[in-house]
Amino acid sequence: MEGVPKAVHTLELFLDYVCPFSAKMFLTLSSSILPLIPQKYPGKLRIIFRQQIQPWHPSSTLVHEAGTAVLRLAPERFYAFSQKLFEHQKEFFDVNVVKETRNETYKRLAKLAGEVEGVKEGDVYGLLEVGDQPAEDGGLNVGNKVTDDMKVLVKVNRLTGVHVTPTVLFNGVVENNISSSFTGQQWEEWLEKNIK
Questions:
Q1: Distances in Å between the alpha carbon of 196 and those of 32, 41, 49, 169?
Q2: What is the pLDDT of residues 80-93, one digit of tens each?
Q3: Separation between Cα atoms, residue 181 and residue 28, nearest integer Å
Q4: Which single residue of 10, 80, 127, 131 has CA 20 to 30 Å from 143?
Q5: Global pTM?
Q6: 151-164, pLDDT tens digit by residue?
Q7: Could you tell me if 129 and 102 are in contact, meaning their C-beta atoms sit under 8 angstroms apart?
Q8: Helices (H) and strands (E) in the chain, counts
Q9: CA-based Rg of the chain, rounded to a whole angstrom?
Q10: Which value, to the nearest 10 degrees, does the dihedral of the CA atoms of residues 149, 151, 156, 162 take?
């Protein structure tokens, strides 16, 4: 999210785009904490947002595929799109997607992505759309053009052992003292105590 690649400390945020608690954490960090990092902790802190699919939210995979599509097409716009997804997450909660096809949800996600400067709606949808024809080998689980990216994302997160969102790792270790209910002030206090 912010910081320097070779920083002394790393905060990894495992967040799900359709988890209300993840949204609260992301939006608090975006508005209150990220602007402080370059001035207050130069060279000391790197924050990484890790997409964490939650299977009990049926649309979770779809919204993370959209995030992955934007990351592939315009990596510098990934956080702006993530912000927009968290701000609009209720539009992708269960009751708001249950009556539409997967491709219809993808169209709405691509349209939302197209609202981010530098991201083209048609390009995003082109990566997300699932065709209705078998693969050349006759396979019927054809996926889309970000399916392989999603497999890597899931494998990496499984290796880390993260199961719920939000989960925060500080220097590679789960930090249970950080809560999704943290205010900007609580984040500042935690950072002052832990970032030396």
A1: 20, 9, 22, 17
A2: 999 999 999 999 99
A3: 9
A4: 80
A5: 0.93
A6: 999 999 999 999 89
A7: no
A8: 9, 5
A9: 17
A10: 120
